[in-house]
Design a protein that fits this description.
Layout lengths: L3 H25 L6 E4 L1 H11 L1 H21 L5 E10 L9 H8 L1 H19 L7 H25 L6 E14 L3 H68 L4 H36 L6 E4 L18 H22 L4 E12 L11 E11 L7 H68 L4 H35 L4
Parallel strand pairs: 1-4
Antiparallel strand pairs: 2-3, 3-5, 5-6
């Protein structure tokens, strides 16, 4: 008999149980996998939009485009600004120390000779002695004036160049560079082509990976249905065997054999479902979707895909190697240009402080200049010849690599073509094998029901039926994958 206290306890337990269940359900709802039906083309477009490798190739294309634009700017004049300040330890002097000292005593030097001549004149003509005082006073004044004048000239010739400030605007226009500018433009143009072809190759590789993952999901989806059908078939047989054992028309050994096969079928279903879950996660990662997204493929694997009729010479790998060969040929010209005359037009405007336009004035002043520079290599001990030969050798290596790759690609295309033919033949044989297995199973089931076929033969017919249907699924998917490989081998997308 339940007491009120016991009823109250049971009520609280139920409330707590319902509350916990509701909390767990709310936590589980956001993690519920979202089911999305996607076609193969939709998966490819998602992969192209979200794949990191594709994003890196887009950045590489942008870099190549900017490099090409940079190379074209070399045709145009470059303008640069220059500013500098220098503190020099010793002042630049236009006069020697002896010249400065001589100028400082210029008046004294001039009057010393004059005073000597006056003394000689007085000695020869004593009657002129009265003029000596005036002449000596005039000589003294002349000496002072001459010394001041000499000192002024010495000071005027000072450069005051211990602190020099300079600024200039320069313009440089290449006139002849030995073909280097044109060669770099072609190199960067071919680099753009390489970037686009590399993006195309990456897209082909990503799409092939997506296609392989997509058809793997389709294959495991079909094998899941096949495994479930096989399990249900064995479950029905196991039920019949139980009744037959009870009626005494079958042995327990027969029933045990069927039960073992049923357990194996259950394990097969579990393995297939686990494999299907992992394959969907791989496809989600390639498409940039959350890993718990339940992708439901919508394409029919029995529909034959069209194979592009592109020529194998359009393969992006070959186009990249061809561009690499052209780049190496242009690099030969770049190396050669370093040992050819270089000519450029230069012009500019410069200001300095102090300036030399009006003596060494302590103020900013400037002037313009224009001219042509020419650089002609004269002798380099064969450096240019050796470098040019090395560059030509690299170009030859690139050409041989391109030719070798063409042969390899042609062989790959033929192998892919043979694989398509083999896959079609395999599918036809698998279809016939499956039809034979279906008929064999039907006959075995009827014979076992009538008691003319043993349980072991019935189980063998079941196993053969499963193997034939599984082989048919593999052949069906292999037809799709072989055509995807052939499409890539022909350079198509």
């Amino acid at each position: 008999m339940r007491t009120p206290f016991m009823s109250s306890c049971f009520t609280r337990v139920r409330l707590r149980t319902f509350t916990l269940f509701g909390f767990l359900l709310c936590c589980a709802l956001p993690a519920t996998a979202q089911t999305i039906a996607l076609s193969l083309d939709s998966c490819k477009q998602l992969a192209a939009s979200h794949n990191r490798r594709m994003a890196m190739e887009e950045a590489a294309i942008e870099k190549a485009e900017q490099d090409f634009r940079t190379a074209r700017t070399n045709y145009l004049p470059k303008v640069s600004a220059l500013a500098s300040y220098m503190h020099i330890g010793d002042e630049v002097s236009l006069l020697s120390d002896a010249q400065k000292q001589s100028l400082g005593t210029l008046g004294t030097q001039l009057t010393s000779s004059f005073s000597s001549q006056v003394a000689n004149l007085i000695a020869a003509h004593p009657e002129l002695a009265g003029l000596a005082g005036g002449l000596q006073a005039a000589a003294g004044n002349l000496a002072n004036t001459g010394n001041a004048l000499g000192s002024g000239i010495a000071n005027a010739l000072r450069t005051d160049t211990r602190n020099v400030t300079a600024a200039a605007i320069l313009l440089t226009q290449p006139l002849f560079t030995g073909g280097k500018i044109r060669a770099w433009e072609r190199i960067t143009d071919e680099a753009r082509r390489v970037a686009h072809e590399r993006q195309r190759l990456t897209r082909q590789q990503v799409w092939l990976e997506v296609e392989q993952a997509y058809w793997q999901v389709v294959s495991l989806r079909h094998k899941q249905k096949l495994a479930l059908a096989f399990r249900d078939m064995l479950a029905h047989t196991d039920s019949d065997m139980t009744k037959m054992v009870a009626e005494g028309v079958a042995t327990k050994s027969d029933a045990l054999s069927v039960a073992v096969k049923l357990n194996e079928a259950e394990m097969t279903v579990t393995k297939v479902e686990d494999g299907l879950t992992l394959s969907k996660m791989l496809l989600c990662r390639l498409c940039g979707l959350p890993l718990n997204t339940d992708i439901e493929p919508s394409d029919n694997p029995e529909k034959m895909p069209a194979v592009a009729s592109a020529d194998f010479l359009s393969r992006p790998e070959l186009n990249q190697l061809e561009s690499a060969w052209k780049i190496q040929k242009e690099k030969v010209k770049v190396v050669r240009s370093d040992f050819l005359p270089q000519m450029a037009l230069m012009g500019g405007y410069a200001v300095t402080n102090p300036h030399v336009l009006n003596g060494f004035e302590r103020q900013f002043a400037g002037t313009w200049a224009v001219g042509v520079t020419l650089k002609v290599p004269v002798w380099n001990w064969g450096e240019g010849k050796h470098k040019i030969r090395a560059a030509r050798a690299e170009a030859t290596m690139a050409q041989l690599k391109m030719e070798d790759a063409r042969e390899a690609v042609e062989l790959e295309q033929k192998q892919a073509t043979f694989r398509v033919t083999e896959a079609d033949r395999r599918f036809e044989l698998a279809q016939k094998h499956m039809e034979a297995a279906d008929e064999n199973l039907r006959v075995a089931q009827l014979g076992h029901h009538e008691g003319v076929i043993t349980t072991q033969n019935l189980l063998a017919a079941h196993t053969a039926w499963l193997s034939a249907h599984s082989e048919q699924i593999d052949a069906l998917i292999d037809r799709q994958l072989s055509r995807a490989v052939l499409r890539k081998a022909k350079g198509g997308e």
